[in-house]
């Protein structure tokens, strides 16, 4: 005990000594710790919340409130079933079809570029004029965006890691720019620039020879190793006095003695040579004055020739297969083989000469025509009569539309060519020459007022009635009457999104991955031919037909036989009937959030889980006298059946003046029965009716899945 006492005394003495020592020292300066302005000092620190940036679908729903879906569809719809979405924010459609939407609350651009390949729609803070794509070292696609400089002058390029100055102000035509081999190619008013982006930024600019303020602007195509550029002579205006090439990181002017001095169009052939179309006859020379118009004596005459770049290695097996295909019993197959062989240049001739004698007569005839074309060049096997050909339009996708006023000669399987007079032709960006366009496409077209366009192999006209798309032999309108202000077709993006713009800058997107929010309720009525209509144990609709063996259930996309002893159910057991609320009667529905719904004849009463009660008198057009059935779909929409032959679509609108909104009244194909055997939402999200031996399947999403459509067509519906 004494020992413990002594230890305590010693400890107290030491503590006292230490305290006295510190009290005798000068006070140290206070240590100031940084304080987070948003966090009171007296409160415990909390983890920062991750910034929330709007997504494409959130913008869709915010600016188009009638869209119910929160995610894009897995498979694109047909255009008539697609949503028409209007955006007031700037929207840019890049060359590969991605959408870039600019908003102040969007994602930081550099952050969006970390994994840009994960989505095809981006909401960012910057406004792109061009999106540059290239494959990175990991095999994924990397991206950068070109934007206006921070001071409004010149252009910067933003990557996932930095922002650098790209170029000073030039009249760049970014709408026609493209990426190749990690470089950016963009035309100006009189020249072409090629930008190196990695490892450092460098601009290779070249002015087209002879180009000035009064000449046509330059155009470009890809060759086997680089880029060919020229300014075309067309539509009464002069172009460049030669052709230029960018190869091995440098521009060169191709020899004027070998290349046309009045180029109209160049097209790469599959053997590495170039089909050249020049204005006038071979003897004409370029004017010294770059502002001069084309001579009156050669308003639309052309001269075709073949130019050589580097020869490429031909796929001998593929060519042999094409030559053999010239003897195919199917005329379409023979024509397809001839069309592709006509896209080769002089390198094909020795192969044709070597193999021609061993072919059947029809193939020999075609080979003679191909060899004749190597001597006298033709446009994909087509020869303009009198060498007359006009350029009517250069489309945004690179397609060039021509008009041959005297027609064209088309090779046939006889020695006598067919003549189409006059003829409209289309040269695709990949060098394919489309044969004379069909009458259904050009019947209302005039060369001096053409309204014909091509975008990604789609044909459309855009005139006073608005843009119309060629489907089969007819043109179908693309826009609604209320959308006629969207006069500019920007292009077609991924998933076949059609993008239009109005003069005020608003953008219209017809998006096949979002269902048209206009209320629709397509239906499939199945009469079981003296059989039974009902459902199975999993609540899929089911039938038993007198003309078929066994019982069948309709799952999400196919019919499936019911395995015995399972049969078609036609009556609900008592246990499935809803319970009764003593104060309000029998509930019609328990919603996904636990709310209870009552009445359904003259009003809709909602009692939420917290006990709050809302009573909404039904509009006069929605009042009914039949026993009501209320169904809620996965997107929260309510469907009320309270009158034979009618189904009501109702939306919950808690933030509006009225708690609910009657969106649509559907009557087509809705059973006209006071007491249907059952109305229910099946596992595939369809609202089904059983009335006697009739099964009616409706699709509340507004569209019929393709698999179901095929089955309906098989049944003649």
Q: What would your notes on this structure say?
A:
The chain is globular, with a radius of gyration of 36 Å. The strands form 13 sheets. The chain has a four-stranded antiparallel sheet with strand order 1-33-32-31, covered by helices on one side. Strands 5-6-7-8 form a four-stranded antiparallel sheet, with no helix packed on it. A four-stranded antiparallel sheet has the order 9-10-11-12, with no helix packed on it. It has a domain at 523-714. It has 717 residues and is mainly β. Strand 10 (183-187) and strand 11 form a beta hairpin. 13% of the residues lie in helices and 33% in strands. It has nine helices and 49 strands. Helix 4 (316-325) runs antiparallel to helix 5 (331-341).
Provide a brief overview of the structure.
The chain is mainly β and 717 residues long. The chain has a domain at 523-714.
Strand tally is 49
Strand order of the largest sheet: 1-33-32-31
Query: How many DSSP H or I helices?
Result: 9
Average the pLDDT over all residues and give the rounded result. Answer: 86
What is the beta-strand fraction? 25-35%
């Amino acid at each position: 005990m004494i020992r413990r006492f002594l230890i305590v005394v010693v400890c107290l003495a030491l503590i006292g000594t230490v305290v006295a020592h510190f009290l005798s020292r000068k006070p140290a300066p206070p240590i100031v710790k940084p304080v987070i302005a948003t966090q009171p000092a007296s409160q415990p620190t909390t983890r920062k919340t991750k910034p929330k940036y709007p997504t494409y679908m959130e913008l869709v729903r915010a600016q188009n409130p009638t869209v119910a879906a929160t995610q894009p569809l897995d498979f694109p719809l047909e255009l008539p079933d697609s949503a028409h979405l209007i955006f007031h924010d700037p929207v840019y459609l890049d060359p590969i079809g991605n959408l870039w939407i600019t908003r102040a609350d969007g994602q930081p651009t550099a952050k969006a570029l970390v994994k840009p390949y994960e989505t095809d729609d981006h909401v960012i803070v910057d406004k792109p004029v061009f999106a540059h794509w290239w494959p990175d070292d990991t095999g994924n696609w990397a991206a950068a965006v070109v934007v206006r400089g921070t001071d409004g002058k010149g252009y910067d390029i933003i990557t996932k890691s930095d922002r650098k100055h790209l170029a000073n102000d030039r009249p760049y035509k970014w709408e026609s720019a493209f990426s190749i081999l990690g470089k950016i190619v963009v035309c100006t008013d009189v020249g072409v620039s090629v930008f190196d982006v990695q490892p450092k930024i460098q601009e290779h600019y070249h002015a087209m020879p002879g180009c000035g303020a009064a000449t046509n602007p330059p155009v470009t195509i890809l060759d086997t190793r680089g880029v060919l550029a020229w300014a075309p002579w067309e539509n009464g205006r002069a172009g460049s006095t030669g052709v230029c090439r960018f190869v091995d990181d440098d521009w060169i002017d191709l020899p004027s003695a070998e290349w046309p001095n009045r180029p109209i169009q160049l097209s790469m052939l599959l053997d590495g040579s170039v089909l050249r179309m020049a204005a006038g006859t071979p003897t004409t020379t370029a004017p010294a004055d770059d502002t001069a118009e084309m001579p009156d004596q050669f308003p639309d005459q052309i001269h075709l020739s073949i130019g050589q770049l580097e020869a490429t290695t031909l796929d001998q097996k593929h060519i042999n297969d094409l030559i053999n295909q010239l003897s195919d019993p199917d005329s379409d197959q023979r024509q397809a083989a001839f069309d592709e062989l006509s896209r080769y240049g002089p390198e094909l001739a020795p192969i044709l000469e070597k193999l021609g004698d061993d072919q059947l007569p029809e193939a020999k005839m075609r080979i003679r025509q191909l060899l004749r074309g190597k001597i006298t060049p033709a446009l994909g096997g087509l020869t303009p009569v009198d060498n007359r050909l006009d350029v009517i339009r250069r489309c945004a996708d690179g397609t060039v539309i021509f008009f041959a006023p005297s027609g064209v000669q088309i090779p046939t399987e006889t020695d006598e060519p067919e003549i189409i007079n006059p003829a409209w032709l289309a040269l695709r960006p990949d060098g394919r020459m489309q044969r004379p366009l069909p009458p259904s496409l050009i019947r209302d077209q005039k060369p001096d007022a053409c309204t014909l366009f091509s975008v990604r192999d789609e044909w459309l006209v855009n005139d006073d009635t608005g843009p119309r798309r060629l489907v089969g032999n007819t043109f179908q309108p693309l826009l609604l009457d209320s959308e006629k202000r969207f006069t500019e077709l920007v292009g077609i993006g991924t998933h076949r999104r059609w993008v239009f713009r109005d003069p005020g800058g608003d953008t219209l997107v017809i998006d096949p991955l979002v269902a048209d929010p206009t209320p629709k309720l397509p239906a499939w009525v199945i009469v079981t031919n003296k059989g039974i209509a009902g459902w199975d144990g999993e609540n899929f609709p089911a039938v038993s037909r007198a003309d078929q063996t066994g019982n069948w259930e309709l799952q999400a996309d196919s019919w499936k036989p019911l395995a015995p002893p399972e049969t078609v159910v036609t009556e609900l057991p008592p246990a499935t009937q809803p319970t009764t609320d003593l104060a309000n009667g029998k509930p019609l529905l328990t919603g996904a959030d636990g709310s209870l719904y009552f009445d359904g004849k003259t009003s809709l009463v909602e009692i939420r889980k917290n006990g709050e009660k809302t009573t909404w008198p039904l509009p006069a057009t929605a009042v009914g006298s039949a026993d009501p059935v209320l169904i809620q779909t996965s997107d929260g929409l309510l469907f009320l059946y309270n009158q034979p032959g009618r189904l009501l679509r109702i939306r919950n609108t808690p933030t509006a003046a009225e708690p609910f909104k009657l969106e649509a009244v559907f009557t087509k194909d809705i059973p006209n029965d006071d007491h249907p055997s059952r109305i229910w939402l099946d596992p595939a999200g369809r609202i089904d009716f059983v009335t006697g031996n009739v099964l009616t399947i409706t699709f509340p999403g507004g569209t019929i899945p393709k698999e179901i459509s095929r089955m309906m067509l098989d049944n003649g519906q």
